[in-house]
Each structure stands twice: as structure tokens, then as C-alpha cells.
Amino acid sequence: MNNIFVYCELEDGAIANVSFELLTKGRQLADELGCQLEAIVIGSNLDGIENQIYPYGADVVHVADDSRLAPYTTLPHTSIINFVFEKEKPQIALMGATPIGRDLGPRVSSALYSGLTADCTSLEIGSHEDKKAGKTYEKLLYQIRPAFGGNIIATIINPECRPQMATVREGVMKSEIRSKTYKGERKNIDVAKAVKPEDFVIEIIERHIEQKKVNLNAAPVIVAGGYGMGSKENFKALHELAEVLGGEVAASRAAVDAGFAEHDRQVGQTGVTVRPKLYIACGISGQIQHRAGMEDSAQIIAINNDANAPINSIADYVINGEVMDVIPKMIKYYKANSK
């Protein structure tokens, strides 16, 4: 009772990366609150699925295994989670801010009258003093997310209703194995009791899964451009540099808004959060909204003509100069010395 639950999403029979990130964070929060971490996974042919989850510190894994539950459809998954939550009464419930999580989370929170904070970038435990009511609430979940287009950071709390629910974007949290030998308990969910016949009104006849055109989270090297690149044409130089380095091209919000790059390439609070081995920031001033999406990169190189640019304060190396002078030289040097 009153434990932390993580909904573990499936991708082709395997646990999604965002769920491992949430399990890691959930374990940290559970340790802080002195409670257990529990996971729930729903699908078909799930023999041994719990063994993917235990190493991240899950004490209990609730499994709903039924041929009708894959691929994902909204109603049966909602009914199963509501069935488990009404019985177990978690204090915190986390889901990925994925297409599935964004569909599932609001339905569950609405059914449980619990509220939901979407697209969180950070989760913390804290307290809140309600002076009007004369109450102090301890051990609340601080649900932190960008607001007003990323111009401010909002901290949202839910003092009264449970569970405290949040969806979290992929990549904003680290996934770390607690112990490869960590073992919890598997509990099988009675699907027949959890779902209703009318939950299966939708039949999946055919599925078409379109692969991501850009996968910044998997790129070991990212070459990112900002508004200081000057034009979409100049972004071609970034693509060439990324190609020779075996990396991918990203962009700041200002560059995306200016039409220099697609939104899929946006890094920052309102884009993707990345942690590559090398992040090369080209013509990026480095406002807090952008830094929040890349400051955990293993190594950062900043290239710009402003010696006082905020990005320089977190960079391991700073190249002060015009980006369109520096980048061609980098490409030429790397090609000459990588044969």
C-alpha cells in the first residue's frame, strides 16, 4: 500500500527505455520515502518480462498477460491499471510522456480523480505549507516542468488526491541498474476480473510503425546549431561535420523557430533531452532552456563569437570565432587525420 508505481511500456516485447529511466527515478524516490517500488506491465507472451525490470530495483512487478492486450489499445489497459491502483492505492504513479503514456495517463487520472502533470522534466520530494488552511504537507511529489513555452519552470503539487501522477519525457532522467541480481516478486493480474467485454470494442486489423527519422538519444556525437548559424543553408555545414564524426544534427529552439531545422531535432526543455559523449554547440547562446536539454553531455564544445555566451560556462572547450569559419576547418582537419 502507498508505494510508488511505474507503468512499464513495451516496445516489440521489450521494456521501453523511458520506463527504465522511470524505474531508476522511482527507486530513488522510494528510498527517500521509505516505501517500495512497484511496476506494472501489460501485454501478451510476457513470460520472464519481470527479469528485465528487477535489476532497476522493482520490489513487485504486476503482470497482465493476455493475447488480447497486444498491441496496445486504450480501454483494456486503462481498466487494468485502474483495477490495480484501486486495490494497491499507490501514492505516486509514473508513466512515460510517449504517445501511449499521453493517451493512458489522462484516462487513468480522470477515473481516479487524481490529477496529472504532463511532460515533467524533474521529480523531487518536498513539503508545502498551506497558510490559509493552516496545514503543512510533508513528502509531496514536486512535479517540475517547463511552462509558457519554456520561459518559466513550474513546480506542481497535489496535496490531497492520490496517486500523484506524472508523465516524464524520455531522456530527461538517467537509467541505472541498481543490481543485476536484484529480485522482486511477480504478481499476475487477473485480467478476467480487471477488464470488461466492452473494453475490446476496437480491433487492430493492421499496424504500420514508422521509424523515427531522427534519434538524438542514440547519437554518440551531436552537432547542434543555434540562431547564430544565420540560415538554413549554413546548417548544411553541421550535417557535413556530423557525418564525418558519425553523429547527428540537433538545433536550439531559436533555430527551429527560424526554420533552420525540423522540430524533431530540437534540444531543450521544449524539445529532446540528450546525453551524448560529445556535444558541439555551434552558434548557440546557451539560454537555460537549451542547457537543460544537454548539460549532462559527457563533453561539450562551444563555438561562437561571443566570449560571454552562457553556453561557455558549461563547455569543456570554447572556440571563440565565427562558426562558418571554424566548422569547415574542423571538417578538413578531421578528414585529413582520420584516414
State the low-pLDDT regions, or none.
none
Our measurement of the CA-to-CA distance between the termini, rounded to an integer number of angstroms, reads 61 Å
Question: Mean of the pLDDT scores?
Answer: 92
The CATH topology assignment of the largest domain is Rossmann fold
Topology, number of strands: 17
Number of domains: 2
In brief, what are we looking at here?
This protein has about 350 residues and is α/β, with parallel strands linked by helices. The chain has 2 domains: about 5-200, HUPs (Rossmann fold, 3-Layer(aba) Sandwich); about 215-335, TPP-binding domain (Rossmann fold, 3-Layer(aba) Sandwich). It has 9 helices and 17 strands.
Please give a structural write-up:
With 339 residues, the protein is an alpha/beta fold. It has 2 domains: 197 residues, Rossmann fold, CATH 3.40.50; 122 residues, 3-Layer(aba) Sandwich (Rossmann fold). The protein contains 9 helices and 17 strands. The protein has a 7-stranded parallel sheet with strand order 7-11-6-1-4-5-12, sandwiched between helices. Strands 14-13-15-16-17 form a 5-stranded parallel sheet. A hairpin with a 4-residue loop joins strand 8 and strand 9. The longest helix has 17 residues.
